[in-house]
C-alpha cells in the first residue's frame, strides 16, 4: 500500500507537524478569526486549504502568535473562516437530534461529505516539541503471534469491525476529495507494511450506524476472514443509550465469538474519539467509562488503542471544530491520522 510516510509519524514524537487541521473562527464580529495550533512554532508556518490546492502567505493572509500557539487572520485575508453563530445556528422546527446540550433552540453545525473539509485549513511547521499529553504506550508484547509473524516477514491479515469512523467517513479519500487521504484502517495496514516489510491484507467490515450489539452479530463474518489481528472499534453510536457494563459485555462477546472460529486471532480494542462536547445525544462521561471497560478486557492477545485519551489531550489545545470531519462525531483527515498513529503505537514492540 502506497501511503505518504509522513502521515504515519506520531505527532507526539516529532519536532515538526505536517497538515495539522484548523478551522478559523471569528468569535466576535469586530475581531479577526483565529485558530489554535497544537504546538509552539519555532519558525514560520505554512498554511494551505485542507485540499492543498491553495496556499496562503504569512503576514499577508495571517499572522503567527507563537507564544499563544495561535494564527490570526488579517483584514482582507482569503483564508476560509466561519463565525461562532455559523457553528451554532438557530435550530429549525423539528431539528431535535443535533441541538446543543441544554439549549434546544440552537443546533450544532453538521454535514457529511467534504463540507467541513472545504472550510478547514492545514498548517505545517517546526515546533518546540511541547506535546501536551500522555504518550500512547507500546503494547506489542501482548500481541505475540502477530508480532512474530511481522518479525518473520510473514503475511498478516487485519480485519476491522466497527462503525462509520472505522468505515472511513469524512477522510478525504473516502469522500473523494483532494488530497485523497485514506481512512485510518488503510493507514494502519500501510504502517505495518512499512515498519515490518510484511504483506498486509486488510478486510474492513465496519458499517456506518452500528453499535457493539451489531458487532456481536457480525463477529462470524470477522472470523471467516481468518484474521491474525482484529481491530474492534465501537462506542460512538453506543454512547447515546448504552452503559459501560453492557458495552463491555458486547465487546467480550465479539472476542469470544471470533476466537471460537479463528483461535489464533489477536485483538486491538479502540477506545473512540470524543464527540462534540456540546452535543446533547452523547453523555461525555460515557467515553472514559467505555475506555476503562475496554482496558479491563486487555491482556495477552488483547491490547488497547486509547484514542479517547489521545483525543482528550489534543483538545486541551485545539477545538473540536479543528479536528472533526462532520461537526458531530467523525474525524477529519488529521483525526484519522491520530487514530492510525495510536493503533500503530500499541502494535509496536517495546
The helix-and-strand class reads alpha/beta
Mean pLDDT: 96
CATH topology of the largest domain: Rossmann fold
Walk across the major sheet and give the strand order. Answer: 13-12-14-15-16
Strand content: 15-25%
- End-to-end separation: 25 Å
Task: Give the full name of the CATH homologous superfamily of the largest domain.
Answer: SGNH hydrolase
Q: Considering DSSP H and I runs of 4 or more, what fraction of the residues is helical? A: 25-40%
Largest sheet: 5 strands, parallel
Under the CATH scheme, which class of the largest domain? Alpha Beta
Number of strands: 16
Q: What integer value in Å does the Rg equal?
A: 20 Å
Gross geometry: globular
Architecture per CATH nomenclature, i.e. the level-2 architecture of the largest domain: 3-Layer(aba) Sandwich
User: Uncertain runs with pLDDT below 50, 5 residues or more?
Assistant: none
Write up what this structure looks like.
- With 350 residues, the chain is α/β, with parallel strands linked by helices.
- The chain has two domains: 5-126, no CATH class; 140-346, SGNH hydrolase (Rossmann fold, 3-Layer(aba) Sandwich), CATH 3.40.50.1110.
- Helices cover 30% and strands 20% of the residues.
- The chain has 13 helices and 16 strands.
- It has helices spanning 84-87, 115-119, 144-151, 164-167, 172-175, 184-196, 212-217, 219-224, 244-261, 286-295, 307-314, 320-323, 333-346, and strands at residues 16-22, 24-26, 34-36, 46-49, 55-56, 62-65, 70-73, 81-83, 99-100, 103-107, 121-126, 156-162, 200-204, 229-233, 266-271, 302-306.
- The strands form five sheets. Strands 13-12-14-15-16 form a five-stranded parallel sheet, with helices on both faces. Strands 1-11-4-5 form a four-stranded antiparallel sheet.
- α6 crosses α13 (333-346) and α9 packs parallel to α10.
- The longest helix is centred in the last third of the chain and has 18 residues, at 244-261.
- It is globular, with a radius of gyration of 20 Å.
- The mean pLDDT is 96.
